């Protein structure tokens, strides 16, 4: 697990969570519930780590909703801050762009 993901899961466990405006739009578009992402954060599998992202460190993770369907979520921490964990975006991965297990981008 990356340091960024460890920090994010600790923040989520303490209830220090914010959803970005973009995140809310994407969740609504793909019919994803915030509670599924918050509850499943401790089991999130890191796919890509962006510790030097200009807006603050973030990670792309694979999570699952309450029905067991895969979701990709980007969680971050605002640059220069220690809290909150921000759900930047989340979406249902496209099987045409991702491997069958949704863990790697197709080339």
Brief write-up:
The protein is of the alpha+beta class and 107 residues long. It has helices spanning 3-13, 21-29, 34-40, and strands at 17-19, 45-50, 58-64, 70-76, 85-91.
Strand order of the largest sheet: 1-5-4-3-2
Structural class by SSE content: alpha+beta
In whole angstroms, the N-to-C terminal distance is 25 Å
- Number of domains as seen in the coordinates: 1
Q: Name the shape in a single word.
A: globular
- What's the order of the H and E elements? HEHHEEEE
Q: Give the tally of β-strands.
A: 5
What fraction of residues sit in β-strands? 25-35%
Describe it for me?
The protein has 107 residues and is α+β, with helices and mostly antiparallel strands. It has one domain (3-81). Helix content is 25%, strand content 28%. It has three helices and five strands. It has helices at residues 3-13, 21-29, 34-40; strands spanning 17-19, 45-50, 58-64, 70-76, 85-91. It has a five-stranded mixed beta sheet. β2 and β3 (58-64) form a beta hairpin. The radius of gyration is 13 Å and the shape is globular. The chain starts with a helix and ends in a 16-residue tail after the last strand.
